Amino acid sequence: EAQVTQNPRYLITVTGKKLTVTCSQNMNHEYMSWYRQDPGLGLRQIYYSMNVEVTDKGDVPEGYKVSRKEKRNFPLILESPSPNQTSLYFCASSSLGGGPPYEQYFGPGTRLTVT
Amino acid sequence: GQNIDQPTEMTATEGAIVQINCTYQTSGFNGLFWYQQHAGEAPTFLSYNVLDGLEEKGRFSSFLSRSKGYSYLLLKELQMKDSASYLCAVRAPRQSNYQLIWGAGTKLIIKP
To answer: Is the peptide bond before A75 cis (omega within 30 degrees of 0)?
Structure first.
């Protein structure tokens, strides 16, 4: 089954404790992206990757890191989480070739609370 | 700047028809997406328009006018399960790495 998986689904942590949210896709997609979603603000992109070893900042990259060492994986790292990073996080992937619609497939989301 | 506008919230009756509008002002255009998102869940793909006109897919249709920077999503024969947020997103061209610019979403409430 074609899917994007994220782990963990729920996480409560404390300020300053490093954490990693994993993301994996099994569709051989070139493009992967991380979003955060907050009430009233819609989806905001944190980082994205066009292919292995190619990453770039989105609209709200401060406080986050990513890596793309393998095509299928795109982990999101919070080196020193702060309460303003409490949010719902989504990983997404899409193909860049092979014809439209090039829709993004989303993972189930990770609800992060930083106290 | 880049901007996508959608109504914040709409209410409709079960069995009726509703039209959700989206207007956009972006520096480039390479297609427009509509996604459905139930509360606390991931967005799921509904439609993609890159040329002007109407695309029909079952109870859902999507329309695009590139000259007006305008799209709408039409939902017919509304069902309670259609209560969700509907997100409009514009795909940037290759020079901008095909980024998606997202609207804040329209929350649709269906009443019996």
So the answer is: no
User: What are the CA-CA distances from residue A17 to residues A22, A59, A89, B86 (Å)?
Assistant: 16, 24, 18, 35
Residues 37-76 of B with CB under 8 A from A: 40-45, 48, 50
| C-alpha–C-alpha distance, residues A31 and B54, integer Å | 28
* pLDDT value of residue A50: 93
Q: Is B100 at the interface with chain A, CB within 8 A?
A: yes
Whether residue A1 is predicted with pLDDT greater than 90 in this model: the reply is no
Q: Which residues of A touch B91 (CB under 8 A)?
A: 102
Pairing type for strands B60-65 and A105-106 reads unpaired
pLDDT, tens only, B30-58: 999 999 999 999 999 999 999 999 999 99
pLDDT at residue number B81: 97
DSSP letter (8 states) at residue B51: S
Token readout for B60 is: 């859902």
Containing H/E element for B64?
Answer: strand B60-65
Q: Which of B31, B41, B42 sits opposite A100 (nearest CB)?
A: B31
**What's the DSSP call for residue B43?**
-
Contact B42 A40 (CB under 8 A): no
The structure tokens listed for B99 are 């980024």
- Min Cα distance B76 → chain A (Å) is 23
Give the one of A41, A100, A101 whose C-beta lies nearest to B104's C-beta.
Answer: A41
Average pLDDT for chain B: 95
Residue with tokens 């729920």: A10
